[in-house]
Amino acid sequence: MKTHPKEVFSMTAGIFRVCLVVVTAIINHPILFPWENATIPENEEEIIHKMRAHQEKLQLAQLRLEEEVARLEEEKEALKQAAEDSQQQNEGRLAWDLWSTLCMIIFLMIELWRQDYLDSIPPDSPGEEDDLHSPRITFQGINLPDKVTLSHFYERCIRGTTGDAVRTREFVEGFVDDLLEALRSVCNRDTDMEVEDFIGVGSMYENWRVDKPLLCDLFVPFTPPEPYRFRPEVWCTSKSSVPLDLQGYGQIKVGWVNEDSVNCICDKTKLGEDLLCLLHSKNQKIRPNSKMEDLLCLKDSPFLDMDQVMKWFQTALTRAWQRISRKYEFDLAFGHLDTPGSLKIKFRSGKFIPFNLIPVVQCEDSDLYFVSHFPRGRPVGAPASSTHWFLSFAVYERHFLKMITKALPENACHLSCLQIASFLLTKQNRLTGVSGLSSYHLKTALFHLLLARPASDWRSKHLESRLNDLLRFLEKSLLEKKLCHFFVGNQKVPNTMGIPEVFRQAEPLNLFCPFVLQRSLYQKTVDSFYEMLKNASTLISEYSLHIPADHSSSLQKRTLL
Protein backbone atom coordinates (compact mmCIF):
# COMPACT_ATOMS: atom_id res chain seq x y z
CA MET A 1 0.00 0.00 0.00
CA LYS A 2 1.52 3.35 -1.03
CA THR A 3 1.36 6.32 1.32
CA HIS A 4 0.33 9.72 0.07
CA PRO A 5 2.98 12.44 0.42
CA LYS A 6 0.59 14.93 2.11
CA GLU A 7 -0.20 12.47 4.83
CA VAL A 8 3.52 11.91 5.46
CA PHE A 9 4.14 15.60 5.78
CA SER A 10 1.19 16.00 8.08
CA MET A 11 2.43 13.27 10.47
CA THR A 12 5.92 14.76 10.51
CA ALA A 13 4.54 18.19 11.43
CA GLY A 14 2.48 16.71 14.32
CA ILE A 15 5.48 14.88 15.73
CA PHE A 16 7.51 18.07 15.52
CA ARG A 17 4.89 20.00 17.45
CA VAL A 18 4.81 17.44 20.22
CA CYS A 19 8.56 17.45 20.60
CA LEU A 20 8.58 21.25 20.69
CA VAL A 21 6.01 21.27 23.54
CA VAL A 22 8.03 18.73 25.53
CA VAL A 23 11.29 20.66 25.12
CA THR A 24 9.58 23.91 26.15
CA ALA A 25 8.12 22.32 29.31
CA ILE A 26 11.47 20.90 30.30
CA ILE A 27 13.24 24.19 29.79
CA ASN A 28 10.67 26.19 31.80
CA HIS A 29 10.55 23.74 34.81
CA PRO A 30 11.53 25.70 38.06
CA ILE A 31 13.67 22.96 39.49
CA LEU A 32 15.94 22.81 36.48
CA PHE A 33 16.07 26.49 35.71
CA PRO A 34 15.17 28.74 38.74
CA TRP A 35 13.99 32.26 38.14
CA GLU A 36 16.88 34.13 39.53
CA ASN A 37 16.44 37.10 37.32
CA ALA A 38 12.73 36.89 37.03
CA THR A 39 10.73 40.01 37.40
CA ILE A 40 8.52 40.65 40.52
CA PRO A 41 4.87 40.60 39.74
CA GLU A 42 2.83 43.68 40.42
CA ASN A 43 0.68 42.11 43.30
CA GLU A 44 3.65 41.08 45.51
CA GLU A 45 3.03 43.79 48.12
CA GLU A 46 -0.56 42.68 48.50
CA ILE A 47 0.58 39.10 48.98
CA ILE A 48 3.15 40.16 51.58
CA HIS A 49 0.53 42.23 53.42
CA LYS A 50 -1.81 39.24 53.54
CA MET A 51 0.99 36.99 54.74
CA ARG A 52 1.87 39.42 57.54
CA ALA A 53 -1.77 39.66 58.58
CA HIS A 54 -2.01 35.88 58.62
CA GLN A 55 1.22 35.69 60.62
CA GLU A 56 -0.19 38.13 63.21
CA LYS A 57 -3.34 36.04 63.51
CA LEU A 58 -1.22 32.97 64.05
CA GLN A 59 0.79 34.77 66.73
CA LEU A 60 -2.39 35.91 68.52
CA ALA A 61 -3.80 32.40 68.38
CA GLN A 62 -0.51 31.07 69.73
CA LEU A 63 -0.60 33.59 72.60
CA ARG A 64 -4.17 32.66 73.46
CA LEU A 65 -3.24 28.99 73.34
CA GLU A 66 -0.26 29.57 75.61
CA GLU A 67 -2.43 31.53 78.06
CA GLU A 68 -5.03 28.75 78.05
CA VAL A 69 -2.34 26.14 78.64
CA ALA A 70 -0.90 28.23 81.50
CA ARG A 71 -4.36 28.63 83.06
CA LEU A 72 -5.01 24.89 82.83
CA GLU A 73 -1.65 24.22 84.44
CA GLU A 74 -2.49 26.60 87.29
CA GLU A 75 -5.87 24.95 87.82
CA LYS A 76 -4.23 21.56 87.80
CA GLU A 77 -1.70 22.68 90.39
CA ALA A 78 -4.47 24.20 92.53
CA LEU A 79 -6.52 21.01 92.38
CA LYS A 80 -3.48 18.96 93.27
CA GLN A 81 -2.67 21.24 96.20
CA ALA A 82 -6.30 21.13 97.43
CA ALA A 83 -6.28 17.34 97.23
CA GLU A 84 -3.08 17.21 99.26
CA ASP A 85 -4.48 19.64 101.86
CA SER A 86 -7.73 17.66 102.10
CA GLN A 87 -5.83 14.43 102.53
CA GLN A 88 -3.70 15.96 105.28
CA GLN A 89 -6.79 17.39 106.97
CA ASN A 90 -8.59 14.03 106.83
CA GLU A 91 -5.54 12.31 108.25
CA GLY A 92 -5.38 14.86 111.05
CA ARG A 93 -9.11 14.60 111.74
CA LEU A 94 -8.93 10.81 111.79
CA ALA A 95 -6.02 10.94 114.20
CA TRP A 96 -7.96 13.39 116.42
CA ASP A 97 -11.10 11.22 116.36
CA LEU A 98 -9.09 8.17 117.31
CA TRP A 99 -7.41 10.08 120.12
CA SER A 100 -10.76 11.46 121.39
CA THR A 101 -12.32 7.99 121.33
CA LEU A 102 -9.36 6.53 123.19
CA CYS A 103 -9.54 9.28 125.83
CA MET A 104 -13.29 8.70 126.27
CA ILE A 105 -12.78 4.96 126.72
CA ILE A 106 -10.04 5.58 129.28
CA PHE A 107 -12.25 8.10 131.11
CA LEU A 108 -15.18 5.68 131.26
CA MET A 109 -12.94 2.89 132.53
CA ILE A 110 -11.56 5.17 135.24
CA GLU A 111 -15.08 6.29 136.22
CA LEU A 112 -16.35 2.70 136.42
CA TRP A 113 -13.34 1.71 138.49
CA ARG A 114 -13.90 4.70 140.77
CA GLN A 115 -17.55 3.79 141.33
CA ASP A 116 -16.65 0.18 142.15
CA TYR A 117 -13.87 1.37 144.42
CA LEU A 118 -16.15 3.77 146.33
CA ASP A 119 -18.78 1.06 146.72
CA SER A 120 -16.29 -1.49 148.00
CA ILE A 121 -14.51 0.58 150.70
CA PRO A 122 -16.02 2.61 153.55
CA PRO A 123 -15.93 6.42 153.31
CA ASP A 124 -13.70 6.79 156.37
CA SER A 125 -11.53 4.56 158.46
CA PRO A 126 -12.70 3.03 161.76
CA GLY A 127 -9.86 4.75 163.55
CA GLU A 128 -11.43 8.13 162.96
CA GLU A 129 -14.75 6.92 164.35
CA ASP A 130 -13.29 5.80 167.66
CA ASP A 131 -11.73 9.19 168.30
CA LEU A 132 -14.29 11.35 170.13
CA HIS A 133 -12.37 14.55 169.46
CA SER A 134 -11.73 13.96 165.73
CA PRO A 135 -12.72 16.85 163.45
CA ARG A 136 -16.31 16.68 162.23
CA ILE A 137 -17.12 16.13 158.57
CA THR A 138 -18.35 19.27 156.84
CA PHE A 139 -20.64 19.83 153.90
CA GLN A 140 -19.55 22.97 152.04
CA GLY A 141 -18.19 24.37 155.29
CA ILE A 142 -21.25 23.36 157.39
CA ASN A 143 -20.60 21.70 160.76
CA LEU A 144 -23.05 19.10 162.03
CA PRO A 145 -23.71 18.38 165.72
CA ASP A 146 -21.17 16.31 167.59
CA LYS A 147 -21.67 12.86 169.08
CA VAL A 148 -22.79 13.93 172.56
CA THR A 149 -25.35 16.43 171.25
CA LEU A 150 -26.81 13.84 168.91
CA SER A 151 -27.15 11.33 171.74
CA HIS A 152 -28.91 13.90 173.92
CA PHE A 153 -31.25 14.80 171.11
CA TYR A 154 -32.10 11.19 170.30
CA GLU A 155 -32.89 10.31 173.92
CA ARG A 156 -35.10 13.35 174.40
CA CYS A 157 -36.99 13.70 171.13
CA ILE A 158 -37.03 10.33 169.39
CA ARG A 159 -36.69 7.35 171.71
CA GLY A 160 -39.86 8.22 173.61
CA THR A 161 -42.02 7.90 170.49
CA THR A 162 -41.42 4.13 170.24
CA GLY A 163 -43.87 3.22 173.00
CA ASP A 164 -46.55 5.56 171.65
CA ALA A 165 -46.17 4.00 168.19
CA VAL A 166 -46.81 0.49 169.51
CA ARG A 167 -49.99 1.51 171.34
CA THR A 168 -51.25 3.46 168.32
CA ARG A 169 -50.66 0.51 165.97
CA GLU A 170 -52.57 -1.89 168.23
CA PHE A 171 -55.57 0.42 168.50
CA VAL A 172 -55.75 1.20 164.75
CA GLU A 173 -55.33 -2.45 163.73
CA GLY A 174 -58.17 -3.59 165.97
CA PHE A 175 -60.52 -0.95 164.59
CA VAL A 176 -59.57 -1.57 160.94
CA ASP A 177 -60.20 -5.31 161.36
CA ASP A 178 -63.74 -4.55 162.44
CA LEU A 179 -64.24 -1.93 159.71
CA LEU A 180 -63.11 -4.24 156.89
CA GLU A 181 -65.29 -7.05 158.17
CA ALA A 182 -68.27 -4.70 158.02
CA LEU A 183 -67.21 -3.65 154.51
CA ARG A 184 -67.27 -7.25 153.33
CA SER A 185 -70.76 -7.70 154.73
CA VAL A 186 -72.19 -4.72 152.83
CA CYS A 187 -70.61 -5.67 149.48
CA ASN A 188 -72.16 -8.01 146.95
CA ARG A 189 -69.79 -10.92 146.49
CA ASP A 190 -71.06 -11.61 142.96
CA THR A 191 -70.54 -8.10 141.58
CA ASP A 192 -68.30 -6.11 143.97
CA MET A 193 -64.59 -6.32 144.57
CA GLU A 194 -63.48 -8.72 147.29
CA VAL A 195 -61.42 -7.12 150.09
CA GLU A 196 -58.62 -9.07 151.79
CA ASP A 197 -56.85 -8.53 155.15
CA PHE A 198 -54.79 -5.36 155.54
CA ILE A 199 -50.97 -5.19 155.53
CA GLY A 200 -49.08 -2.69 157.69
CA VAL A 201 -46.30 -0.81 155.87
CA GLY A 202 -44.21 2.32 156.21
CA SER A 203 -42.29 3.97 159.03
CA MET A 204 -44.77 3.01 161.77
CA TYR A 205 -44.19 -0.68 161.05
CA GLU A 206 -40.46 -0.25 160.44
CA ASN A 207 -39.98 1.46 163.85
CA TRP A 208 -38.49 4.75 162.67
CA ARG A 209 -41.51 7.07 162.66
CA VAL A 210 -40.71 10.39 164.40
CA ASP A 211 -43.13 12.90 162.89
CA LYS A 212 -46.32 13.56 164.82
CA PRO A 213 -49.14 12.79 164.73
CA LEU A 214 -48.25 9.13 164.46
CA LEU A 215 -49.76 7.81 161.22
CA CYS A 216 -50.37 4.19 160.22
CA ASP A 217 -50.30 3.23 156.53
CA LEU A 218 -52.30 0.09 155.76
CA PHE A 219 -52.48 -1.70 152.40
CA VAL A 220 -55.90 -3.22 151.63
CA PRO A 221 -55.59 -5.75 148.76
CA PHE A 222 -58.70 -6.39 146.67
CA THR A 223 -59.56 -8.81 143.88
CA PRO A 224 -62.27 -8.79 141.19
CA PRO A 225 -65.37 -10.99 141.34
CA GLU A 226 -65.42 -14.26 139.49
CA PRO A 227 -64.91 -15.06 136.64
CA TYR A 228 -62.52 -12.10 136.28
CA ARG A 229 -58.89 -11.66 137.22
CA PHE A 230 -56.24 -8.91 137.27
CA ARG A 231 -53.34 -9.14 134.81
CA PRO A 232 -50.56 -6.69 135.79
CA GLU A 233 -48.34 -5.22 133.06
CA VAL A 234 -45.13 -3.65 134.40
CA TRP A 235 -42.75 -1.32 132.57
CA CYS A 236 -39.71 -3.64 132.64
CA THR A 237 -41.49 -6.39 130.68
CA SER A 238 -42.50 -4.10 127.82
CA LYS A 239 -40.83 -4.86 124.47
CA SER A 240 -40.86 -1.20 123.43
CA SER A 241 -39.09 1.67 125.16
CA VAL A 242 -40.99 3.15 128.13
CA PRO A 243 -40.96 6.91 128.84
CA LEU A 244 -39.03 7.98 131.92
CA ASP A 245 -42.12 9.18 133.78
CA LEU A 246 -43.76 5.74 133.40
CA GLN A 247 -40.83 3.73 134.74
CA GLY A 248 -41.76 2.34 138.15
CA TYR A 249 -45.43 2.16 137.17
CA GLY A 250 -47.68 -0.45 135.59
CA GLN A 251 -51.16 -1.05 134.26
CA ILE A 252 -53.69 -3.60 135.49
CA LYS A 253 -55.74 -5.29 132.80
CA VAL A 254 -59.05 -6.87 133.75
CA GLY A 255 -59.64 -10.15 131.94
CA TRP A 256 -61.32 -13.51 132.19
CA VAL A 257 -59.96 -16.29 134.37
CA ASN A 258 -59.77 -18.68 131.38
CA GLU A 259 -58.85 -16.00 128.87
CA ASP A 260 -55.77 -17.91 127.72
CA SER A 261 -57.70 -21.14 127.12
CA VAL A 262 -59.90 -22.09 124.18
CA ASN A 263 -62.84 -19.71 123.85
CA CYS A 264 -66.08 -21.06 125.22
CA ILE A 265 -69.31 -20.61 123.23
CA CYS A 266 -71.66 -20.86 126.17
CA ASP A 267 -72.12 -17.10 126.17
CA LYS A 268 -72.85 -17.05 122.43
CA THR A 269 -75.19 -20.04 122.12
CA LYS A 270 -78.42 -20.68 124.01
CA LEU A 271 -78.01 -23.98 125.77
CA GLY A 272 -80.99 -26.10 126.66
CA GLU A 273 -82.22 -26.34 130.21
CA ASP A 274 -80.78 -29.83 130.47
CA LEU A 275 -77.35 -28.81 129.15
CA LEU A 276 -74.54 -27.42 131.31
CA CYS A 277 -71.20 -25.84 130.35
CA LEU A 278 -68.30 -27.94 131.63
CA LEU A 279 -66.01 -24.89 131.80
CA HIS A 280 -68.34 -22.50 133.63
CA SER A 281 -70.68 -23.28 136.46
CA LYS A 282 -73.86 -21.33 137.11
CA ASN A 283 -72.03 -18.95 139.39
CA GLN A 284 -69.25 -18.42 136.85
CA LYS A 285 -71.48 -17.99 133.82
CA ILE A 286 -70.32 -15.03 131.77
CA ARG A 287 -72.76 -12.18 131.98
CA PRO A 288 -73.92 -10.99 128.56
CA ASN A 289 -73.57 -7.30 127.76
CA SER A 290 -71.41 -6.70 130.86
CA LYS A 291 -69.56 -3.40 130.73
CA MET A 292 -65.96 -2.90 131.77
CA GLU A 293 -66.98 0.26 133.65
CA ASP A 294 -68.81 -2.00 136.11
CA LEU A 295 -65.41 -3.50 136.95
CA LEU A 296 -63.92 -0.06 137.79
CA CYS A 297 -62.14 0.23 134.43
CA LEU A 298 -61.55 3.38 132.44
CA LYS A 299 -64.28 4.03 129.87
CA ASP A 300 -63.74 2.05 126.66
CA SER A 301 -60.62 0.49 128.18
CA PRO A 302 -59.79 -2.88 129.80
CA PHE A 303 -57.42 -1.24 132.33
CA LEU A 304 -58.30 -0.63 135.97
CA ASP A 305 -58.91 3.04 136.76
CA MET A 306 -57.57 4.47 140.04
CA ASP A 307 -60.26 7.16 140.24
CA GLN A 308 -63.03 4.59 139.85
CA VAL A 309 -61.42 2.39 142.51
CA MET A 310 -61.20 5.25 145.01
CA LYS A 311 -64.85 6.22 144.47
CA TRP A 312 -65.91 2.63 145.07
CA PHE A 313 -63.69 2.33 148.14
CA GLN A 314 -64.93 5.56 149.70
CA THR A 315 -68.56 4.54 149.20
CA ALA A 316 -67.90 1.08 150.66
CA LEU A 317 -66.13 2.54 153.73
CA THR A 318 -68.99 4.95 154.37
CA ARG A 319 -71.54 2.12 154.28
CA ALA A 320 -69.35 -0.07 156.50
CA TRP A 321 -68.96 2.68 159.14
CA GLN A 322 -72.69 3.31 159.20
CA ARG A 323 -73.19 -0.33 160.09
CA ILE A 324 -70.79 -0.39 163.09
CA SER A 325 -70.74 3.26 164.23
CA ARG A 326 -73.12 2.59 167.15
CA LYS A 327 -70.54 0.28 168.75
CA TYR A 328 -67.95 3.05 169.26
CA GLU A 329 -67.84 6.24 171.28
CA PHE A 330 -65.91 8.18 168.67
CA ASP A 331 -66.52 9.42 165.15
CA LEU A 332 -64.82 8.49 161.87
CA ALA A 333 -64.21 11.11 159.19
CA PHE A 334 -62.29 11.40 155.96
CA GLY A 335 -59.12 13.37 156.48
CA HIS A 336 -58.68 14.81 152.96
CA LEU A 337 -61.16 15.10 150.14
CA ASP A 338 -58.56 14.31 147.46
CA THR A 339 -57.38 11.15 149.28
CA PRO A 340 -60.48 9.07 150.14
CA GLY A 341 -58.42 6.48 152.05
CA SER A 342 -57.18 9.09 154.53
CA LEU A 343 -59.28 8.57 157.68
CA LYS A 344 -59.32 10.16 161.09
CA ILE A 345 -60.71 8.85 164.39
CA LYS A 346 -62.09 11.77 166.42
CA PHE A 347 -62.61 11.40 170.17
CA ARG A 348 -64.96 13.53 172.25
CA SER A 349 -61.98 14.96 174.12
CA GLY A 350 -60.76 16.57 170.91
CA LYS A 351 -57.90 14.15 170.31
CA PHE A 352 -57.67 12.26 167.06
CA ILE A 353 -55.77 9.39 165.46
CA PRO A 354 -55.19 9.55 161.69
CA PHE A 355 -54.51 6.52 159.51
CA ASN A 356 -54.48 5.63 155.81
CA LEU A 357 -56.30 2.76 154.14
CA ILE A 358 -54.81 2.29 150.67
CA PRO A 359 -56.51 -0.04 148.15
CA VAL A 360 -53.82 -2.07 146.37
CA VAL A 361 -53.58 -4.83 143.79
CA GLN A 362 -51.10 -7.66 144.27
CA CYS A 363 -48.57 -8.16 141.46
CA GLU A 364 -48.83 -11.85 140.56
CA ASP A 365 -47.80 -14.04 143.52
CA SER A 366 -45.17 -11.67 144.96
CA ASP A 367 -45.17 -9.15 147.81
CA LEU A 368 -45.29 -6.30 145.30
CA TYR A 369 -48.42 -4.17 145.23
CA PHE A 370 -49.84 -1.57 142.85
CA VAL A 371 -50.86 1.47 144.89
CA SER A 372 -54.07 3.29 144.01
CA HIS A 373 -53.19 6.66 145.56
CA PHE A 374 -50.53 8.41 147.61
CA PRO A 375 -51.64 9.46 151.11
CA ARG A 376 -49.15 12.36 151.19
CA GLY A 377 -49.77 13.59 147.66
CA ARG A 378 -48.56 12.46 144.28
CA PRO A 379 -44.77 12.25 144.00
CA VAL A 380 -42.86 14.56 141.70
CA GLY A 381 -42.88 13.34 138.11
CA ALA A 382 -45.84 10.95 138.55
CA PRO A 383 -47.81 10.35 135.32
CA ALA A 384 -51.19 12.03 134.97
CA SER A 385 -52.83 8.87 133.62
CA SER A 386 -55.33 7.25 135.99
CA THR A 387 -54.57 3.77 134.63
CA HIS A 388 -50.85 3.79 135.56
CA TRP A 389 -50.40 2.46 139.09
CA PHE A 390 -47.29 2.96 141.20
CA LEU A 391 -45.52 -0.31 142.04
CA SER A 392 -44.66 -0.39 145.75
CA PHE A 393 -41.85 -2.45 147.34
CA ALA A 394 -43.00 -1.47 150.87
CA VAL A 395 -43.46 -5.05 152.07
CA TYR A 396 -39.98 -6.02 150.85
CA GLU A 397 -38.56 -2.92 152.52
CA ARG A 398 -40.05 -4.00 155.83
CA HIS A 399 -38.67 -7.53 155.39
CA PHE A 400 -35.22 -6.18 154.51
CA LEU A 401 -35.02 -4.06 157.67
CA LYS A 402 -36.02 -7.05 159.77
CA MET A 403 -33.41 -9.23 158.10
CA ILE A 404 -30.58 -6.68 158.33
CA THR A 405 -31.38 -5.82 161.96
CA LYS A 406 -30.77 -9.45 162.93
CA ALA A 407 -27.30 -9.30 161.34
CA LEU A 408 -26.30 -5.97 162.99
CA PRO A 409 -24.97 -5.54 166.54
CA GLU A 410 -27.41 -4.99 169.38
CA ASN A 411 -28.72 -1.40 169.61
CA ALA A 412 -27.39 -0.62 166.13
CA CYS A 413 -27.63 3.01 165.03
CA HIS A 414 -29.07 2.51 161.53
CA LEU A 415 -32.64 3.42 162.49
CA SER A 416 -31.39 6.27 164.68
CA CYS A 417 -29.63 7.80 161.66
CA LEU A 418 -32.81 7.53 159.61
CA GLN A 419 -34.93 9.01 162.38
CA ILE A 420 -32.66 12.03 162.88
CA ALA A 421 -32.41 12.70 159.15
CA SER A 422 -36.18 12.36 158.77
CA PHE A 423 -36.72 14.75 161.69
CA LEU A 424 -34.47 17.37 160.07
CA LEU A 425 -36.17 17.00 156.70
CA THR A 426 -39.66 17.34 158.21
CA LYS A 427 -38.74 20.52 160.09
CA GLN A 428 -37.08 21.98 156.98
CA ASN A 429 -40.15 21.28 154.83
CA ARG A 430 -42.28 23.17 157.33
CA LEU A 431 -39.91 26.13 157.10
CA THR A 432 -39.32 26.41 153.36
CA GLY A 433 -42.04 24.20 151.86
CA VAL A 434 -41.95 20.72 150.41
CA SER A 435 -39.06 20.04 148.01
CA GLY A 436 -38.22 17.10 145.76
CA LEU A 437 -36.52 15.24 148.63
CA SER A 438 -38.65 12.84 150.69
CA SER A 439 -38.22 10.41 153.56
CA TYR A 440 -38.34 7.58 151.00
CA HIS A 441 -35.12 8.93 149.48
CA LEU A 442 -33.55 8.95 152.95
CA LYS A 443 -34.55 5.31 153.49
CA THR A 444 -33.22 4.31 150.05
CA ALA A 445 -29.87 5.94 150.79
CA LEU A 446 -29.70 4.12 154.13
CA PHE A 447 -30.41 0.76 152.45
CA HIS A 448 -27.49 1.28 150.06
CA LEU A 449 -25.18 2.13 152.98
CA LEU A 450 -26.32 -0.92 154.96
CA LEU A 451 -25.04 -3.20 152.20
CA ALA A 452 -21.88 -1.15 151.60
CA ARG A 453 -20.53 -1.11 155.16
CA PRO A 454 -19.70 -3.99 157.50
CA ALA A 455 -22.03 -4.75 160.39
CA SER A 456 -19.51 -3.61 163.02
CA ASP A 457 -19.65 -0.03 161.67
CA TRP A 458 -23.26 0.30 162.80
CA ARG A 459 -22.64 0.12 166.55
CA SER A 460 -24.38 2.81 168.60
CA LYS A 461 -21.09 4.66 169.24
CA HIS A 462 -20.76 5.34 165.50
CA LEU A 463 -24.02 7.32 165.29
CA GLU A 464 -22.30 10.59 164.32
CA SER A 465 -20.18 8.99 161.59
CA ARG A 466 -23.07 7.06 160.09
CA LEU A 467 -25.30 10.13 160.06
CA ASN A 468 -22.54 12.01 158.25
CA ASP A 469 -22.26 9.12 155.78
CA LEU A 470 -25.99 9.23 155.11
CA LEU A 471 -26.07 12.98 154.49
CA ARG A 472 -22.90 12.82 152.43
CA PHE A 473 -24.41 10.04 150.30
CA LEU A 474 -27.51 12.18 149.74
CA GLU A 475 -25.39 15.19 148.78
CA LYS A 476 -23.43 13.13 146.26
CA SER A 477 -26.65 11.71 144.81
CA LEU A 478 -28.20 15.17 144.51
CA LEU A 479 -25.17 16.61 142.76
CA GLU A 480 -25.12 13.68 140.33
CA LYS A 481 -28.94 13.69 140.00
CA LYS A 482 -28.86 9.95 140.47
CA LEU A 483 -30.26 7.78 143.26
CA CYS A 484 -30.88 4.20 142.19
CA HIS A 485 -33.88 2.25 143.42
CA PHE A 486 -32.68 -0.23 146.02
CA PHE A 487 -34.46 -3.31 144.65
CA VAL A 488 -34.84 -2.73 140.89
CA GLY A 489 -31.75 -3.84 139.00
CA ASN A 490 -29.66 -4.25 142.19
CA GLN A 491 -27.77 -7.54 142.09
CA LYS A 492 -26.41 -6.92 145.62
CA VAL A 493 -29.79 -7.54 147.25
CA PRO A 494 -29.72 -11.00 148.89
CA ASN A 495 -31.58 -13.73 147.02
CA THR A 496 -33.31 -14.68 150.24
CA MET A 497 -35.46 -11.56 149.88
CA GLY A 498 -37.41 -13.28 147.11
CA ILE A 499 -37.51 -10.34 144.71
CA PRO A 500 -39.00 -11.48 141.35
CA GLU A 501 -36.23 -12.11 138.83
CA VAL A 502 -37.72 -9.74 136.25
CA PHE A 503 -37.03 -6.83 138.62
CA ARG A 504 -33.60 -8.04 139.67
CA GLN A 505 -32.52 -8.24 136.02
CA ALA A 506 -34.17 -4.96 135.00
CA GLU A 507 -32.27 -1.75 134.28
CA PRO A 508 -31.58 0.32 137.44
CA LEU A 509 -34.32 2.83 138.19
CA ASN A 510 -33.19 6.40 138.95
CA LEU A 511 -35.37 7.96 141.65
CA PHE A 512 -33.87 11.39 140.93
CA CYS A 513 -34.90 11.32 137.28
CA PRO A 514 -37.40 14.22 137.78
CA PHE A 515 -34.46 16.47 138.71
CA VAL A 516 -32.99 15.94 135.23
CA LEU A 517 -36.21 17.10 133.58
CA GLN A 518 -37.20 19.90 136.01
CA ARG A 519 -34.38 22.34 136.71
CA SER A 520 -36.37 24.63 138.98
CA LEU A 521 -37.38 21.72 141.21
CA TYR A 522 -33.79 20.51 141.33
CA GLN A 523 -32.45 23.92 142.33
CA LYS A 524 -35.10 24.26 145.04
CA THR A 525 -34.28 20.80 146.39
CA VAL A 526 -30.53 21.46 146.52
CA ASP A 527 -31.04 24.82 148.23
CA SER A 528 -33.43 23.25 150.73
CA PHE A 529 -30.97 20.42 151.44
CA TYR A 530 -28.09 22.78 152.26
CA GLU A 531 -30.44 24.99 154.26
CA MET A 532 -31.38 21.90 156.27
CA LEU A 533 -27.71 21.22 156.98
CA LYS A 534 -27.17 24.81 158.12
CA ASN A 535 -30.13 24.62 160.48
CA ALA A 536 -29.32 21.12 161.75
CA SER A 537 -26.93 22.09 164.54
CA THR A 538 -29.15 24.90 165.86
CA LEU A 539 -32.33 22.83 165.63
CA ILE A 540 -30.90 19.79 167.41
CA SER A 541 -29.29 21.95 170.10
CA GLU A 542 -32.56 23.76 170.82
CA TYR A 543 -34.42 20.48 171.26
CA SER A 544 -31.68 19.25 173.62
CA LEU A 545 -31.55 22.30 175.95
CA HIS A 546 -33.77 21.10 178.76
CA ILE A 547 -32.02 17.82 179.55
CA PRO A 548 -31.18 17.41 183.25
CA ALA A 549 -27.50 17.69 184.07
CA ASP A 550 -27.23 14.26 185.72
CA HIS A 551 -29.02 12.69 182.74
CA SER A 552 -26.65 14.42 180.34
CA SER A 553 -23.55 13.30 182.20
CA SER A 554 -24.75 9.70 182.30
CA LEU A 555 -25.44 9.84 178.56
CA GLN A 556 -21.99 11.24 177.91
CA LYS A 557 -20.37 8.47 179.96
CA ARG A 558 -22.38 5.84 178.12
CA THR A 559 -21.39 7.37 174.78
CA LEU A 560 -17.71 7.34 175.67
CA LEU A 561 -17.98 3.69 176.58
TrEMBL record:
Q: Which spans are transmembrane here?
A: 7-27
Tell me where it mainly resides. Answer: membrane
Q: What are the recorded GO MF terms, alphabetically?
A: protein kinase inhibitor activity
Topology term for the membrane? Single-pass type I membrane protein
> How is this protein named in the record?
Inositol 1,4,5-trisphosphate receptor-interacting protein
Task: Enumerate the subcellular locations listed in this protein's record, separating them with semicolons.
Answer: Cell membrane; Nucleus outer membrane
Q: Which family does it belong to?
A: Belongs to the ITPRIP family.
User: Function, please?
Assistant: Enhances Ca(2+)-mediated inhibition of inositol 1,4,5-triphosphate receptor (ITPR) Ca(2+) release.
Q: Which gene encodes it?
A: ITPRIP
Instruction: Write out the entry's keywords from A to Z.
Output: Cell membrane, Coiled coil, Glycoprotein, Membrane, Nucleus, Receptor, Signal, Transmembrane, Transmembrane helix
